[in-house]
Amino acid sequence: MTTAGAVSTLDRVLERYEPVIGLEVHGQLLTRSKMFCGCSADYIGSPPNSNTCPVCLGLPGVLPVMNRVAIEYTVRTALALNCEIPEHSKFDRKNYFYPDLPKGYQISQYDMPMSQHGHLDFVVGGEPVRCGITRVHLEEDTGTLQHAGDILQQARSSLVDLNRAGVPLMEIVGEPDLRSPEQAREYLVRLRQILVYIGVNDGNLEQGSFRCDANISLRSRGDSSLGVKVEVKNMNSFRAVQRALEFEIVRQGRLLDHGQEISQETRGWVEAKGATISQRSKEYAHDYRYFPEPDLPPLHLTADFVTQVRAGLPELPEQLVERLQRAHGLSAYDAAIITAEREDARSFEALVAVGIPAKAAVNWLMGEVARLSRETRTPLPASGLGVAGLAALITLVESGAISGSTAKELLEELYLPGGDPAAAVRERGLAQVSDQGELSAIVDSVIADNAATVADFRGGKEQALQRLVGGVMKATRGRADARLVNQLLRERLSG
Length: 495
Ligand SMILES: [Zn+2]
Hints:
Layout: H1 4-16, E1 17-28, H2 68-80, E2 88-89, E3 92-95, E4 105-108, E5 116-124, E6 127-140, E7 144-147, E8 158-161, E9 168-174, H3 181-197, E10 210-220, E11 230-235, H4 238-257, E12 265-270, E13 275-281, E14 291-292, E15 299-300, H5 303-311, H6 317-328, H7 332-339, H8 342-353, H9 358-376, H10 386-398, H11 404-414, H12 421-428, H13 436-449, H14 451-458, H15 464-475, H16 482-494
Parallel strand pairs: 11-12
Antiparallel strand pairs: 1-9, 1-10, 2-15, 3-4, 3-14, 5-6, 6-9, 7-8, 10-11, 12-13
Helix pairs in contact: 1-4, 3-4, 6-7, 8-9, 10-11, 13-15, 13-16, 14-15, 15-16
Zinc ion is lined by residues 34, 37, 39, 52-53, 55-56, 166.
């Protein structure tokens, strides 16, 4: 919980110490099959241990075969993050025992990764930040364990599911260039956005297809040496990353203030406690006894292959923001929110392509549609109404055929089941009442029935007029043309 007291404690620690933060992100690649075998990489919808074979179960005598698409996706990611792609790289075995790793080793990349020396630029609080990308490499995911208990180590038994074992996993190692929890959070938001844009990852933190470990140490302000770092795991939201880092800053700051040593260790974030707890002492690279994977040939990525992947790179978020601002005159703010999710930007472009004004498209997508999408857990393109239905609906409002409130009701009603908004308006007589004669009669009767409110307005209470507009809206079930009603009321009451 972020209480005022906790914040000021954090601020006091930050006056004396500078945090040094580096993030390691693991992202599952959106390939159809696993990294080294032909099993389906879809591990969520299938019964436990059904998508497995001798290769991903690590049975003796089997040989892995590289997934070409996974290699291409990793190179695509590396290029989007401004990395160099060495011509020669290789896979290595990272040896360790854990029940979710049946082979007893993970195929990963150690000293010759597929890419290195990149960077990611973003802005926090108006200040540009550049975070170096040490490397983007490729490895395989492990299986999953279901503990009959929780992280506080009260589980009495665990079940293993190996559907995830062998799913292609990209590791994106960032340089320790981040200096605040806010910078760490923004780095992750931008990184996730890029991966989703280039179509290599679904960016789902909750399900763990995009996950992050953070390394954090403190040093006295003005000091250039590095302190002892602590690795924090088990954060499954951007907010959790920020909170966990804030917690660590306060915890480490207190230890340093008391002259105590920080121990190099791995800690897990426990959401329910709002705290990190010690899990194990940090392992070092030499603990893993890395050696070159003998069952796979070294990778040779030719300049031609890299050029081809670069040429196929989709538009990146930054480029799209610029293009939308240029082409549709969007403000920087509108362009940023409409491009935060690739899907929203696509819907936006589809709407303006059929003639919806840019501002109206942004307002509908980011307002009512975003709310319905959240509440029904159904994004617009997957809804019954779809982008075409929304376009039809906005056209009705923009042309004055229906009122804004009728449009909102129709949107809510048609969002999941779908349907033709224009037909619904005809069938149910929802068309906006803009006929002056018809509205005049209603305005007169509302004035006659609300003498006190009329007196208020005449006495100078401007807000009283809105109560009268509300009365007309009620009488027409929201179908009255609000601008005309305002005008008619003022005309009548000015006499
Ligand atoms: Zn398999």
